[in-house]
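Database export, one record per block. Field names are fixed; values are copied verbatim from the stored entry.
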Amino acid sequence: MSVATGLQEYASGGGRPPRLETLVGLRWLAIAGQLVGVLFVDFGLGFPLPLVECLSLIAFSVAVNLWLLFRVGPATRGSARTSTIQLAYDCLQLGGLLALTGGLENPFSLLLLAPVSVSATTLPQRSTLILAGLAIVIASLLSIFHLSLPWNPDERIVFDRVYIIGIWVSLLCGTVFIAAYTNRVAHESRQLADALAATELQLSRREQLASLDGLAAAAAHELGTPLSTIALAAKEMRTDLPEGPLREDIELIISQTARCRDILVKLRNLGADGGDPFALVTLSELVAEVATPHQKGDKTITISKSTAAGPDPVLRRNVGLLYGLGNLIENAVHYARTDVQVECAWDKASVSVTITDDGPGFPLEMMTRLGDPYVSTRGSATEGGGLGLGLFIAKTLLERSGARLAFENAASSGKARVRVVWDRRRIDEA
């Protein structure tokens, strides 16, 4: 599975199915608990129950586990479908045991929620809805069809029908809560984790590119000495040779050596012309640098700056800052009709960059979620849009630099506006 495919699955509500070893281990735990419970009730408490039938259901689960271990292998990570089938089997097997031992009158009927909770935290929403529906159907049937609760044969225990209905309602509410709320929370946690991983990957790639400057300078330094030796030896040979083809070859060696030295000088000076990601740069120059690649023929980017509050603040340029501001400007250009306004302002307390486009503005229903992972107004990835990670990565990188971001629509015109604000003291100390 490619990274893009995996991210699309997460964006559509997918999860990471657990390894077979995990599901088998949980089933072994359930088997042990069921076996101890059945034997304790029958032999420890002396309450009669259909022992053969109960042990048969438990033995069938043992056979299923052994078959999966030897046939498939414990390290296998199955698909969402196979995991759903296994958890559905667990629901049915537990439902069978409960039907033989009192139905919803059995206090262990609460365990019907266990497979649903496993699905809610690891599987897609569709799988969780299927298992939640199955658990509700099983609980509904158990409220009507079941054998008597194992109890002292000399005593009679009777549960009021309203009490049984209350247990059924509590199981129903628990199932719905886990299927809806827990699945949503787990899904958002997975989204955030994968979006942060994508951010780290993006930063890692850019830092690797930035480190090439140092590698080039080191290579230039190491190659400089042997090239100087070659040039010196060639010049000495030229003085001892008369005019002719051999002297012309020596002249060629000297000229190519000089050319190599010029190349090494350029490599050694990479970053000295402003390409160094850690160089100091003024705010307006930084904004102009990141805006230039997004200038388009039919759309203009106008940059203005405040001049009343002293000279331009100086920032330490880094890949996070470049990517973050560049992504915000790129988004503004994408949605703008003709013009994007970028305003740089500063005073003694703060430094800000405000990006405004003359497009339709931010959708009101998405205002509170802008900057969250996998939230995109460009359509789905399959429709040519994005995964909704660009704005999240930009927001994360800028916040790491100490910025605060605000997304809003202008009150008068409804234009989309993004305001990025840094504390002035943090900028000056950087």
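Remark 1: Residues 1-13, 271-275, 379-387 have pLDDT under 50 and may be disordered.
Remark 2: The beta strands are 280-282, 300-305, 314-316, 339-346, 350-357, 404-409, 416-423.
End of record.
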